[in-house]
Amino acid sequence: MTQRSDAEQRRAEALDYHAHPQPGKIATAITKPTETARDLALAYSPGVAEPVRAIAADPDAAWQYTARGNLVAVISDGSAILGLGDLGPLASKPVMEGKGVLFKRFADIDVVDLEVEAENPQAFIDTVRRLEPSFGGINLEDICAPRCFEIEAALSDVMDIPVFHDDQHGTAIIIAAGLTNALRLQGKRLDEAKLVLVGAGAAGTATLNLLLDMGLKRENLLVVDRVGVLHEGLDDLPEHHRRFAAATEARTLAEALVGADAFVGLSAPNLLSEEMLASMADKPVVFALANPDPEILPELAHQVRDDLIMATGRSDYPNQVNNVLAFPFIFRGALDCRARRITANMKIACVEALAALAREAVPESVLKAYDLDAMAFGPEYILPKPFDPRLIERLPAAVAKAAEADGVARTPYRPHAMPEAGSQ
């Protein structure tokens, strides 16, 4: 009998997980009694006519009488599936279902996943905008750049519910929170730090925009993409790159990194060499977020620099940059004040709440979940853990408060009653 390799074993386990005991990862649940003829008469005809009349008279009544207020659509065209590329909408369905699992597990938000076959961005936009009456929010997922920018901007303009492309903004929020704390530990400030970012795609562009909103100085920023450093001498840059073109003589990543305080990589494996890392400023911060293989392995990076703080996108190293720390709680806060959109200040509020939470004492329940005796704010703990119960307490409230301040909340914030642990 031939023994399976580790890769074959992981593949078999993943396929078995998705296939049994029933295909897929999400299903519909009934929330009202359906045991008697009276129950069914209330659920459907004739009882259902009453909420229909109420909603026709007052559209806001839909939040009271239907599931809309706790329902998010997770929508993709499959053009940028994880690290696998453009494999089409059908192949994206397991990822969209997985997103639904995370929404439900961490924020008790119900999800319908929708995989859209669209011949161009406008067709996708037209399809999604017609869905507004069904949902309280739209989470866009796995849509390639620059298509994703056009789609999100257009939908945000025409829809009166939050539209959020998590690959952009979820990633940006976690990077910004981690970077805030890493710089703090290194005795540095965002508004003074020299930062180099590699990979100005969807996530990279959103990260840069958010960091600039938070105080990063444009003159302290260099961006590197396939053409090298984005500089003012390049006259054929796409729109989403043009605003980051710098007045600089640097043309390569190696030249850009000399004296830099922070490196953010959203690019490809092994791009950050030992020599480049050695050339950075004292007490550097390195976020090597290419997955599954980072721009530099932590083992090698720590051999080169003993004054380093480092993060990756992987769960088997400290300081994982994981979007699940943001998107469920952003939407929970937005839904709980019936926000019309997600603003820059709502994202910043989420960043600040995340960063502050990591600086607090870690609850015993978190230590138990990760089988650890101790965990404290420091070089290997700059972000909260996903199973921290305080995330659902702190982040939605902070997001909703910002929504109210920005005038995009329909109602005052009312915290969602989360189910008891283990009941989902």
Q: What's the domain count?
A: 2
Radius of gyration: 23 Å
Q: How far is it from the N-terminal to the C-terminal residue, by CA?
A: 40 Å
CATH homologous superfamily annotation of the largest domain: NAD(P)-binding Rossmann-like Domain
List the quaternary state of the chains: single chain
CATH topology of the largest domain: Rossmann fold
Strand and helix order? HHHHEHEHEHEHEHEEHHEHEHEHHHH
What global shape is seen?
globular
In short:
By secondary structure, the protein is an alpha/beta fold. The protein is 40% helix and 10% strand. It has two domains: 50-161, Rossmann fold (3-Layer(aba) Sandwich), CATH 3.40.50; 167-417, Rossmann fold, CATH 3.40.50.720.
Jot down its keywords.
about 425 residues; alpha/beta; Rossmann fold; six-stranded mixed beta sheet; four-stranded parallel beta sheet; 17 helices; 10 strands; Malic_NAD-bd; Malic enzyme-like NAD(P)-binding protein; oxidoreductase; Malic_N_dom_sf
Task: Describe the protein in words.
With 424 residues, the protein is an alpha/beta fold. It folds into 2 domains: 112 residues, Malic enzyme, N-terminal domain (Rossmann fold, 3-Layer(aba) Sandwich); 251 residues, Rossmann fold, CATH 3.40.50.720. Helices cover 40% and strands 10% of the residues. It is built from 17 helices and 10 strands. The strands form 2 sheets. A 6-stranded mixed beta sheet has the order 7-6-5-8-9-10. Strand 1, helix 5 and strand 2 form a beta-alpha-beta unit. Helix 5 crosses helix 14, helix 8 crosses helix 9 and helix 15 runs antiparallel to helix 17. The longest helix is centred in the middle third of the chain and has 20 residues. The protein is globular. It starts with 5 loop residues before the first helix and ends in an 18-residue tail after the last helix.
